[in-house]
Structures are given as C-alpha cells and as structure tokens.
Amino acid sequence: MVTQSHQDGFCCADHSGSANVAAILDSAESRARAQGARLTPVRRRTLEILLQSHGALGAYEILDRLNAEGFGSQPPVAYRALNFLVEHGLAHRIRRLNAFTACAHPGHDHRAAFLICETCNSVTEADAVAVSAALGQAAQVAGFQITRATIEAVGQCRACQVTSA
Amino acid sequence: MVTQSHQDGFCCADHSGSANVAAILDSAESRARAQGARLTPVRRRTLEILLQSHGALGAYEILDRLNAEGFGSQPPVAYRALNFLVEHGLAHRIRRLNAFTACAHPGHDHRAAFLICETCNSVTEADAVAVSAALGQAAQVAGFQITRATIEAVGQCRACQVTSA
DNA sequence: TTATCTAATGTTATACCATAACAGTAAAGG
DNA sequence: CCTTTACTGTTATGGTATAACATTAGATAA
User: Fold this and answer.
1) Contact A116, A152 (CB under 8 A)
2) Looking at beta carbons, which pairs linking A88-91 to residues 24 or more positions away fall under 8 Å?
C-alpha cells in the first residue's frame, strides 16, 4: 500500500495540524477564484483529504473516501479532482508512488523535490530551486529546453534513520 | 505509443549505430560476469532491443518483440529482463513514460538525468552530477538520507526547437 | 558423471493505475 | 429566463505491473 504510513505516530512531526487545514482550504479557494477556477465540493474535499493525510495517497484511495461520503464511485471522479488540484498548484503527483500529495507551499512559484521515506512512507516536499538551476544547466549543455521536471528521491527521513540506527 | 519516435529521422543524431551495439553487448556481458551475474539470451536480446531503439520502450513493446522471437509471451518475461538490466546499470527506467531505455554510459558510476522531448519522444541521458549534488544538499537540510533519485525533465530537444521555431 | 542445489524462465492469474466517451446537472452570462 | 459552458457521474476499456507456482537449465560438489 502506497499510503499506509506513520503507523505508530513516532515518525515525524505533524503535517499541517487540522487547525490550519481549514485556513489552507479557504486560501486555496481564494486563489482558485482569482484564477477563474472553482474549488467545488469534490475538489475541496479531495484537497482536504490530502492535507489530512501523512504521506501520499493513491487515486483509488481518494476515490474510496469520496465515494463513502456520497460523491461518485468511479475513477474519473478522483482523477479529475486530483488533476485539477495539480494543475492549480494545490497538489503534486508523486510519480514514483503513483500517488498524490497536497502542496506544502501553495501559491509560491516554487520548484519542488520530493523526499520519499521508504521506511515510513512519508513524503516531504523540499525546496528545489538550486536543483532546478543545476538541471537547467545540464539541459542547456544538450540544447534542451525544459518545460517541467520531476525530481524525486527515495531514502530515509530523519526520524527513520534514528530509529533504525 | 510511448515509443514512437523519430518518425522522419530529422530529429537527432544516430544513437549507437548498429556497428557498436555488438561491442556494447559484449562489454555488458563481461561486466555482468564480473559482478557474478549472467547476461542470458533474453536479457541480452532485451538490451539489444533497447540499444537499437530511439527513445524509450514500454515493457509490453519489448515483450512483443521477445515473444516474436520465441521467448516467453507473458509480462514477467519482459519485466524480469528489464529489472535485471536496470539493477545492473545497463538500462534505466523512465518513470514519466512507464518505459525503459538503454544506459548511454554503462559502467560509469554516473548520476543521470533524463531529458524527454515531448515533440519527438526522444530521451536523452544527461550528466546529473551537479544536479545530484544540489539535491543531496536540499535533502540534507531536511535530514533526509537519499538512496537513489529520479530526475526527469520534459520539454523540447534541440532539433525540435529549431523545427517548431 | 551424476546427484544436488540454485538461478532463470515460463505460465496462469490477478491486481493496480488511468482514461475515453457519453449522459445528465448545475452554474455563469447574456 | 434561456443559452452556454463547466462540472459531475456513469459505463466500458486499456495500459502497467506483480504474485505464485511449475519447469528447465547452469553451477557445484561428491
């Protein structure tokens, strides 16, 4: 399971304590509106599920939860909501896991790298400005013009290194 | 199709003219042997298919070709050969494309980034030593210990920029 | 050599991930 | 209001990947 994580709560700090989830959702809504997009109930709820989750969630897991709450039951329901969130910078797709995660810093025009812990399955979003610059440099050597990039690392998060030491 | 590429041959230089394919295969065999691994017929042929291909190939495309030549017909046949090649540094998995490509510089302990042209579907392997260093730096800030990384960029290769200009 | 052990191949079966195409509904704009 | 557009939901299907087990081929040691 891609999503099963933090089984014991020992692994890492809280991700967006539920207190601020609502605030994040509201600001997401404003930003979407400003872009002429609508953060509809399914989309909002999908983002909320991602925000409350540790690690990343697969589309079908999201779908199960949405369906349990009265939303549609078929894959496109989840994929559409998730694609909307990704396109609007509110979530990220983690290709290595075939999964999705809420954006940790929505609104910023940030380049992100993802650090995937293979012990606890947590996914941490790291700043990738320097990485991006280096990648752009490497591409330039090849005369390649980058549109977008995927930067994902697998390893062990701080807490899990300690635990297994 | 993930692999359809270079439809008109205008796009990029030849990738490993068939002359050196045999040499590459032989040296791959030696290196595999040195590691106590065997480059069996399916594995060797799979690598050859990748070497002769432009762009990346999906596992099922490889499977079709293998099967047409008398090898097994079921997915594990292709996946096992491909995983072997990846584990031994003879091929790379391109996650964004759910596909595989022959390693351009087998033997080197190189960090690679992949530049995927969305116009001609070519996949170029670029040196990613600096990118890797920057990524390691970013991870260190988070206390994260990287085991391996995926670095893939989508955009336009040199030839396709010219063409569409 | 032959018995044995291990690695590799092949199969069946199944699970997981993702999208195309179409019908119905709700919101925005004239 | 009525039209237009965007969103939601469905059915159906296609693509990607692996688990589990039977068989065969290679390596090892008696």
Assistant:
1) yes
2) A88/A31, A88/A32, A88/A35, A88/A37, A90/A28, A90/A32, A90/A47, A91/A47, A91/A50
Architecture of domain A112-164: 2-Layer Sandwich (3.30)
Tokens of B130: 């600096």
Is residue B95 predicted with pLDDT exceeding 80? yes
Tens-digit pLDDT profile for residues B67-76: 999 999 999 9
CATH 3.30.1490.190 domain span(s) along chain A:
112-164
> What is the token pair recorded at B120?
């001609």
Nucleotides on strand C lying under 7 Å from protein C-beta: 7-13, 16-21, 27-28
**What residue spans in chain B does CATH classification 1.10.10.10 cover?**
18-102
Token code pair at residue A7: 């089984």
Cα–Cα distance between A29 and B54 in angstroms, integer? Answer: 44
Is B63 in contact with B75 (CB distance < 8 Å)? yes
At the topology level, CATH places domain A18-102 in Arc Repressor Mutant, subunit A (1.10.10)
Best B105, B117, B125, B131 member to test A by mutation, with max A CBs in 10 Å, is: B131
**Which three-class secondary structure state does DSSP give residue B26?**
helix
pTM: 0.90
Q: Tell me if residue B38 falls in helix, strand or coil.
A: coil
Structure tokens of B57?
């190939």
Q: Which nucleotides of strand D lie within 7 A of protein CB? A: 6-12, 15-20, 26-27
